[in-house]
Amino acid sequence: MFDAIKGFLNDIKPSGGIREIQPKVLDTKLAAAVLMVQVIVADGEIRPEEEAKLRHVLEKNYDLSEPEARALAEEAQTAQGEAVDLYGFTSLLKRDMEESQRLGLVEDLWEMVFADGELHEFEDNVVWRVAELLGIPSRSRMELKRRVLARKS
């Protein structure tokens, strides 16, 4: 609460007016990356292989160069740390992505889950919640999980 009051006071101009606050631009790539970061932080530890998988998935599936993927991953980690909930990200993605793209995102989330070679309950839960918010049926979510696991074998 104090942070909110402090932020408001910082936005007051010396002349007494309130300066215009520029909203953060949130696009689908950043929103998707934030959700991927949410998965890899769910178990309380970000491992190097998880960060590497995040950058790889961003490059491959979101048509980014290595420097662009690295920058987006860093921006996503910052945004994830400031996020209050998943809804703001998932509502944008549900609105702006076709179902096939949302299914691809859920598959990407499973890639994050298994990046460290382990299935953590908290990571699994994040994928479940995100998939529900994206309108992805449980059957599809589980099929995508099996598909990613089969690639790992």
Give a brief description.
Helix content is 71%, strand content 0%. The chain is mostly helical and 153 residues long. The longest helix has 17 residues, at 66-82.
Fourth CATH level, the homologous superfamily: TerB-like
**N/C terminus separation:** 49 Å
How do the helices and strands follow one another from N- to C-terminus?
A: HHHHHHHH
Shape call: globular
| CATH fold label | TerB-like
CATH-derived architecture = Orthogonal Bundle
Tell me the fraction of residues in β-strands, as a range.
Answer: under 5%
Residue-averaged pLDDT: 86
Overall number of domains: 1
Rg (CA only): 17 Å
Q: Name the structural class.
A: mainly alpha
Q: Which residues sit in consecutive blocks of at least 5 with pLDDT less than 50?
A: 1-25
Enumerate how many helices there are, as a single number.
8
Question: What's the helical proportion of residues?
Answer: over 70%
CATH class: Mainly Alpha
Biggest beta-sheet profile: none
- Count of beta strands: 0
Question: What descriptive keywords fit this protein?
Answer:
mainly alpha, TerB-like, 153 residues
Characterization of the model:
By secondary structure, this protein is mainly alpha-helical. The chain has a single domain (27-152), classed as TerB-like (Orthogonal Bundle). The chain is 71% helix and 0% strand. The protein is built from 8 helices and no strands. It has helices spanning 2-10, 28-41, 48-61, 66-82, 87-96, 99-113, 121-134, 138-152. Helix 3 (48-61) runs antiparallel to helix 6 (99-113). The longest helix has 17 residues, at 66-82. The chain is globular and about 35 Å long.
